[in-house]
Automatic annotation (TrEMBL):
GO terms for molecular function: N-acetyltransferase activity. It comes from Microbacterium testaceum (Aureobacterium testaceum). This is GNAT family N-acetyltransferase. Residues 8-165 form the N-acetyltransferase domain. InterPro entries: Acyl_CoA_acyltransferase (IPR016181), Diverse_Substrate_AcTransf (IPR051016), GNAT_dom (IPR000182). Belongs to the acetyltransferase family. Signal peptide: none annotated. Keywords: Acyltransferase, Transferase.
Length: 166
């Protein structure tokens, strides 16, 4: 746990944070112009983060009163080239009214610390190409765009059709 300059605490997520985490996920979806895309629930978050075999993890910024002000949700990746794990940052979100408090930097620094402590050579994520404030923020922290790589996704009917080929 880390106490931030305004007294808020950056810490690993724990049981009881699910509703606040879900609120951040929904706020991020709203910001990313996908308000109806969130199917997640507090129960699903609890199972994912705190179940018998967690495969995703989260850091939160807690205002001290139980209010989740910011989140970083992440999971491990694996690079066949380096032969080591890395961290994939799935969601980074800071509620708008708290964006001048350094929470985004603190969360990314915590993830970078996790990488350094565990010998993971990579911390990676995607950002929407129209999200200039985030792109500028990430660039200022030393993040580099992977211009030659593009993300691919298979979902819905295409996923079902592909599975049927097995």
């Amino acid at each position: 746990m880390t106490t931030l300059t305004d007294g808020a605490e950056l810490r690993p997520a724990r049981r009881g944070d699910e509703t606040g985490i879900l609120a951040c996920i929904q706020a991020l979806a709203d910001y990313e112009r996908e308000p109806d895309a969130v199917d997640n629930t507090a129960e699903m978050i609890a199972a994912t983060l705190f179940g018998d075999d967690p495969r995703a993890f989260a850091f939160v910024v807690d205002g001290g009163d139980g209010e989740i002000r910011a989140i970083a949700i992440w999971f491990l990746t694996y690079s066949t080239w380096t032969g080591r794990h890395g961290i994939w940052l799935e969601d980074l979100y800071v509620h708008e009214r708290f964006r001048a408090n350094g929470y985004g930097v603190a969360l990314l620094a915590a993830l970078a610390g996790e990488c350094v402590d565990k010998g993971y050579p990579r911390l990676e994520w995607t950002v929407l190409d129209w999200n200039e404030p985030a792109i500028g923020f990430y660039r200022a922290l030393g993040a580099q765009a992977m211009e030659e790589w593009t993300t691919r996704r298979v979902t819905g009917e295409a996923l079902t059709a592909l599975a049927a080929r097995a």
